[in-house]
Amino acid sequence: MRGTIASGIFAALLSSSATTYAALTQVTGWGENPTNLQMAVSIPSKLAEKPAIVLALHYCGGTGPAYYQMANYDQYANAQGFIVVYPTTTKDSNCWDVASTKSLTNNGGGDSTGLVNMVKYLIQKYNADPTKVYATGSSSGCMMTNVLLAVYPDVFAAGSCYSGVAAGCLAGSPGSSPASADPKCASGQNVKTGAEWAAQVKAMYPSFSGSYPRMQTLHGTADHFVEYFNLAEQLKEWSALLGVEFSQNVTSSPQAGYTKIVYGDGTKLVGYSAANVGHTVPVHPALDMAWFGLA
Ligand SMILES: *[C@@H]1O[C@H](CO)[C@@H](O)[C@H](O)[C@H]1NC(C)=O
Predict the structure, then answer these.
(1) pLDDT at residue 13 above 50?
(2) CATH number for region 4-292
(3) Which residue has its alpha carbon closest to ligand 1 atom 12?
(4) More exposed terminus of the chain, fewer Cβ within 10 Å: N or C?
């Protein structure tokens, strides 16, 4: 895994030399922060009147600023005038907590609560549009994307993420990092029916009766770190929560070797299977922003 992270950062540094980035601003005093997270934001010079907010979540061992370079969203943020938040967790090998009851409970006081408080702060401060809040991330950041959409379905409109696991897959595990987690989840042995996943998610926020956020999730078939089986588990989970069935596969979408797995009419749930791609699937900024309606 160290190799993956190192090469990811290296690739990001290479690409950064060719691109001009807006400055990242560290924010403090943004509200209740029960797990001591750090918050950095990129605010384009020309904000939309009611800007959208994208929460972009780093991989294990990463940081917000490292993910800022890896994700490469500035071109879209500048054109559309939306805000991107790049938070950092420094606990559990810099992995997001997707295991504790606190983080897996609406207003439970875990990492998920702190992240949502960043969103609330930005909505207030920049008159951002509460109906246009999105989450994305890679690996641990994709695990947290699944968790945020499950635990705060009334905060997020959609998620798009890379190489993660279903919300609740690590529930009860002693930690969320490669060193601390119950290996059953990442190794793809936590297999449930869609109805079982949906029941687990609904118990995270029992009083919620609205519709769940739209979800797009990508995974590599050669991922043996967070096994490929986890794509199917995420799709079962969101298929049940969103009430959409598999409808068709589209090959070579968005590029050769990738198969788009379409549920329903493709507006609520889509998976992408990336043939022979390992951990993690590279960020596809255009695909993320198209899914969010921000391209
Ligand atoms: C759709 O594509 C996925 C990923 O390649 C594959 O696992 C699945 O079997 C395909 N389904 C059909 C009906 O072809």
Answers:
(1) no
(2) 3.40.50.1820
(3) 249
(4) C
